[in-house]
Design brief:
six-stranded mixed β-sheet, alpha/beta, Rossmann fold, binds 6-O-phosphono-alpha-D-glucopyranose
């Protein structure tokens, strides 16, 4: 399956991206895609026509189209957990039945969304709780997929946030609850306990702490629970009318579209939330209908595969030139690395290739003043994914947005072109530097260039556009997972640490280290216990 691509490695290694532009006047058009207001430019990569054809064939041979159909049809493609993968149903606003295990799942999804919208409207217009103070603040307690999606989206859509202010508690570190609750009034704060399993240690501990802060069980009237284990919510004391359930075919890191997104719905209102869903659904339609070579999530995945498997780049940086997407890299770290950071194929055999790169990033322009040094001159190449809005939300600050765009475009240009030693020397000579100093300094000012990047331009970060972008990344993960032959929808790799942590809690209470603990862990425990009062 990989032979054709592997055969392109040698030519890819010697090729310069700038030469591809010199040889092809329309490269920028041929290696970019425009759909529904989005422009995805992948011309600043080393992919040429042969490489693109080989990549598309790879997707074809891997049966991306058939597996995509199976996912959307509700087949149990999450084989290790025997589940369907249907987060797309949460943003399916149509009426065509979607049958899973003999039942159309859409009416229930819609009914839950309507119940959420009713409560959200009541909170936002002040009619909830009715007998007390108006809700001004919302605290979402959750972690991983029950935190990162809504947190990222609430922040991204701040200009649409005309509802209560949302806060997020995730870390089991008591500092998170302490600092988040500081200054909040329990009587005007709604608390959302969000956990797919309703069994996550951090979330339940934080929920108990926040309940005590709010005034004990009486405060439960301002609590909401979100879970796919609704019976456990009742045990916690949250009444059924404020419990929003979802099915196990929604993976945690894919769950922002449904009840887990309730904080977002409270912040921006049900109408704007629906627009977020519409953006996601539009991307679903494009993903299902467009041919592989003109399919945005497919191309995004293939560029990633090229960079990692052919060019050997082990990481990728996500660099949004949009301050409000500051948490997008963290969100994508879970989405991509928890989904595709695997070592075995679906059938249990070891993967022959390393699947799933390390994903990291920060918003521009801040990153420029921190780690871009390595990106430009470090010896390991980091493919960069730039995201950029053609317009911002601050028309009065147009100067800022112009500078933002200029910086983003300048970075991909610098990565592509670099600076030769001759150019560096000429610049220094102009400044009057000469002799040995010139020889030395010129070397430090050389940029190899030829470093790949992609740029996604969107019109403006609206709820619809955010929906498009998030769904695009979800489908990229799917395509990469299919090509690697893995199950992108389980996460067994997080379990061992949880089990060991449970065993270590008693040790922290002075009951001795668990049997079999390593000498290092025993010594660390002794040291920590010895330092405590
Ligand atoms: O939503 P919860 O059931 O509380 O799970 C929260 C998170 O915990 C886990 O350990 C998983 O690695 C994540 O995929 C999940 O999103």
């Amino acid at each position: 399956m990989w032979t054709e691509l592997d055969g392109l490695r040698d030519s890819a290694e010697t090729r310069r991206i700038s030469a591809l532009f010199e040889a092809d006047d329309v490269r920028a058009q041929d290696f970019s895609l425009k759909i529904d207001g989005l422009l995805f430019d992948y011309s600043k990569t080393s992919i040429d026509a042969d490489a693109k054809a080989a990549l598309v064939r790879l997707a074809d041979v891997a049966s991306v189209a058939a597996k995509r159909a199976a996912m959307f049809a509700g087949e149990k493609i999450n084989e290790t957990e025997d589940r369907a993968v249907l987060h797309t149903a949460l943003r399916n606003l149509g009426d065509t039945p979607l049958v899973v295990d003999g039942q159309d799942v859409l009416p229930e999804v819609k009914a839950t969304r309507e119940r959420m919208a009713d409560l959200a409207r009541a909170v936002r217009d002040g009619s909830f709780p009715g007998n007390g103070k108006r809700i001004t603040d919302v605290v979402n307690i959750g972690i991983g997929g029950s935190d990162l999606g809504p947190l990222m989206a609430v922040m991204a859509l701040e200009p649409y946030g005309d509802g209560p202010k949302c806060h997020f508690i995730s870390n089991v570190d008591g500092a998170d609850a302490t600092d988040t609750l500081a200054g909040l009034d329990p009587e005007s704060t709604m608390v959302i306990v969000a956990s797919k399993t309703f069994g996550t240690q951090e979330t339940l501990m934080n929920a108990r702490t926040v309940m005590a802060w709010a005034g004990g069980p009486d405060a439960l009237e301002r609590f909401v629970a979100i879970s796919s284990a609704v019976d456990r919510c009742a045990l916690f004391g949250i009444p059924a009318e404020r419990v929003f359930g979802f099915e196990d075919w929604v993976g945690g890191r894919y769950s922002v579209w449904g009840p887990i997104g309730f904080s977002l719905m409270l912040a921006i209102g049900p109408k704007a939330f629906e627009s977020f869903l519409e953006g996601g659904q539009a991307m679903d339609r494009h993903f299902c209908d467009a041919p592989l070579e003109e399919n945005l999530p497919v191309l995004l995945a293939l560029v990633g595969i090229w960079n990692q498997q052919v060019c050997g780049h082990a990481t990728r940086a996500v660099l949004p030139y949009e301050q409000r997407l500051a948490r997008l890299p963290a969100y994508l770290q879970q989405l991509e690395m928890e989904s595709n950071g695997k070592g075995v194929a679906l059938d249990g055999s070891s993967l022959e290739r390393v699947a799933g790169p390390v994903v990291w990033g920060e918003p521009g322009t801040n990153g420029q003043h921190a780690f871009y040094q390595l990106i430009h001159q470090g010896q390991q190449v980091v493919p960069c994914e730039f995201l950029l809005g053609a317009e911002g939300h601050e028309p009065a600050l147009g100067e800022h947005h112009r500078a933002l765009v200029a910086n983003c475009l300048a970075q991909s240009e610098a990565l592509l072109k670099g600076r030769t030693e001759a150019e560096a020397r000429a610049q220094l000579e102009e400044k009057g530097v000469s002799g040995a100093k010139l020889d030395q300094l010129a070397k430090h000012r050389v940029f190899s260039g030829n470093r790949p990047s992609t740029t996604l331009v969107y019109p403006r970060l609206t709820p619809y556009v955010l929906g498009q972008i998030v769904a695009m990344y979800e489908h990229r993960v799917f395509v990469e997972g299919v090509i690697y032959g893995i199950n992108s929808y389980d996460q067994w790799g997080v379990e061992l640490g949880k089990e060991l942590a449970n065993g270590l809690v008693p040790a922290m209470e002075g009951k001795g280290a668990p049997e079999g603990a390593s000498a290092s862990t025993v010594a660390l425990l002794d040291h920590i216990l010895g330092m405590r009062d």
